[in-house]
Amino acid sequence: ELTHLNVCVRFSHCRDPVFGNQIIPDTAILTVIPFHHGFGMFTTLGYLTCGFRIVLMYRFEEELFLRSLQDYKIQSALLVPTLFSFFAKSTLVDKYDLSNLHEIASGGAPLAKEVGEAVAKRFKLPGIRQGYGLTETTSAIIITPEGDDKPGACGKVVPFFSAKIVDLDTGKTLGVNQRGELCVKGPMIMKGYVNNPEATSALIDKDGWLHSGDIAYYDKDGHFFIVDRLKSL
């Protein structure tokens, strides 16, 4: 169960010039992310609150996607990692004028470092903007900041949120470059599972920390890296 506050905070991140997009007139976004996924729904709705023009693709088609980037002068495109492998190898990219494209954002699943680097090179971008989140956190709560891409990382913690890495056996908070379970806390954490308080309390502890089930670490610059998964939520 998500709350009005959960959604409003997500929308504020879409408007953030570091973790979202600068509010520039005539900005156009192209997305192929389905609305049944939190990344697709709340990112798209958030960009609508920014006044951006949204171009939706209900089914991915390679040439239609590239032609849309060109014809609609798209500045930002939202993709899932499964589509990156195609673009890393496709020569179709070179047929289109993609000079307006400022960024490609990836979410919904981990993106392999090598694939992300290959796609960034193919599209002549400095990097790929990534994000990490769960349905239980409304949307992404770790996002690549503008101009601060690091290959293999999913980004830094967004405003109003905290994150920590804890030891799998002791629950002790770990430090830089130490692997453990990623726990997050902030105003986008769901209210709970509907009519299932036991499952809610198993996920969110008494101090409000959501235990993600993902194994991760962070580096000295505050970038987080997801390396494995304990369980599926």
From TrEMBL:
GO terms for molecular function: ATP binding; CoA-ligase activity; metal ion binding. GO terms for cellular component: peroxisome. It is found in: Peroxisome. It comes from the Eukaryota. Its cofactor is Mg(2+). Gene3D superfamilies: 3.40.50.980, Luciferase, Domain 3. Its main location: other. Belongs to the ATP-dependent AMP-binding enzyme family. This is Luciferase.
